[in-house]
Amino acid sequence: MLKELIEYIAKALVDNPDQVKVSEIEGEKTSVIELNVAKDDLGKVIGKQGRTARAMRTILSATSTKVKKRAVLEIIE
Amino acid sequence: MDAIEVEGKTYEEAVRKASLELNAEEKDLDIEVKEVDTKGILGLLGSKKVRITARLREKETTPEDYGKQLLQDLGRFAGLTFNVKTTELNEKTGRIVFLIQCDDGDVLVGKDGETLESVQHILRLAIAKRYKQSLKILVDINGYREKRRNSLAVMAKRLADKAKRTGRQIKTDPLNPYERRIIHTMFKYNKNVTTKSEGEGHTKKVVISPTGRARHGRR
User: Among A2, B8, B196, B204, which is most exposed with the fewest C-beta within 10 angstroms?
Assistant: First the structure.
């Protein structure tokens, strides 16, 4: 569910939605969500001063509280 | 909606037939020319045929509808279902307002509205991306914005009184641009204090300083 959330947001922001790949590495308490996008789209998911990345992380942690799970977002370069 | 195929002696005639058959105006059709047949000697005599396919163009989603859908989808990931009302693009302010009504809205607001700001940021980018133009938007949930504005005003008033009384500068908590603007606007014409923003990025604070007249010697 958290993976799908990130995938959904990322696809709405990038120029190459077909190149958005998200994987989830599930840990005991914490999941790591890895987001891969086309090279040209990196700036789009990071944003000025990391604002967009921070916004995604904030939404992710709000959602994960609701589903009682912790998750961190890694944007893969 | 499926495409239909029609023929006419000219392009115009074919389009006219298609619009009659689909019961739609020509401007609402997507038309593709399949074949232009100019049989007959030098195209002067005999049958000339234009074959086209036509389909009703899907209705463009408005930024309002798209935004509504996006907000509801985001909510669904958090297990929330809610209503979103939108005001149409306000010509004067150039702003679309999205109003969310939700039973369990606190999770969407977050600490000091941080989650709400994030949702708004993502929504603004997504709309800008899809419509290739930057629109001003405001997302509100359960009247949070007004509550926040009121409590900010009370807090700022208290800090300004204190600045005036003590003759010292007072800083607010870190505030986002929208919140800082509320405070700046509030004291724009105030004779006793001036305001300015201080700090970097998302941790900027507002500094409320007493003006010369109100200052009592102490810094």
Answer: B196
